[in-house]
Amino acid sequence: MSAASPFWRNVRNQGARLTLVKGHLSPGTLKDDLRRNMGLRFISVLLALGLWIFVNAGQKGSLVTLQVPIGYGRLPPGYIIVNPHPDFVKIQVSGPRTLLSLIEPNRLALRLDLTGVGVGQASFKIGPDAFPVPRQTSVASVSPSQIVLDIDRIVTRQVRVHLHIIGKPGPGYKIATVGVTPATVAVKGPSREINSIEQVNTDSFDMNGITADMTRTLALLPPEGMARLDTDEVTAEVMLTPVIADKEFHSITVDVRDTQYKFKVDPTHVNLTVRGTVQVLAKLDLRGLVYVEANGIAPGYHRLPVEVDLPDGVQLVRQSSQLVRVRMYREKRTTNSRAFGMGLNPEGRPLPPVAEGSR
After folding, report:
1. Residue 108: how many CB atoms within 10 A of its CB?
2. CATH assignment of 156-242?
């Protein structure tokens, strides 16, 4: 068989291919390939290791505490919850961290159904199954595990308004009457609170130094607790009146009126007690207002009633002498007759005493 035959040509071709493959798989070629891809291979290993750590760490058990809101629904009309009650419940949930991080407390909200409750206490137990947590997680604890509600009926009642006055009116005045409009207001709330309310107070009405009638609009002070008023203000009116008092006047001279004769009076002075307003009494002067009427009285000895001219609004309460002894002389009065009426002669000397019981 010649070297140029097809058989030998095929052998030569196969040997050349083998030589090429051997050259490609040579140790030098492999080292070059490893050096060229070392960075990518290292990054791939790190990513794989991190993913493995993340997955395994997320699968480990953990515990989180959540504040879950509470809703109270379907409370019958006309009723109210009167005791403090929680707006949140604290729960602890266990499970994989990756799942726990996805839990939203608002989606676990607890809603208590108050249908059918009445006056008194209603108790609700809260267990782990009340919260729809994801699979592979569970509620480990609930606090509080029980909620007690105190239910009362809502009532409305009319109560009187009390006007709160501070201070005193000005000198010589006092409060005569007070009035409030409206005189009563409606108060609404839990029956146990409303039944204990006797009155509603107003804001302070300051009367310090006031000397005239006053009308003001005042705010109402809301009752404590859950009670509510149907109005928040009233109109208050305070009426004043002068203070009436008694005043004593001592040693008031007794004059003799309407006579042309000289006279002598015994006793020459009286004590009086009068009644009137403080303002009038403070300015009252009784000099010249206490006298005996001698018109038509002849000379001689007489017992005459003491009269007092009081201004309007002033009343005589008592006097030390109702009658006085008067001696009328035959001599005519002079310009110094006032001194004579006080028991002195025209020269200023004492007159002789009047005999007891003489006329």
Report:
1. 19
2. 2.170.120.40
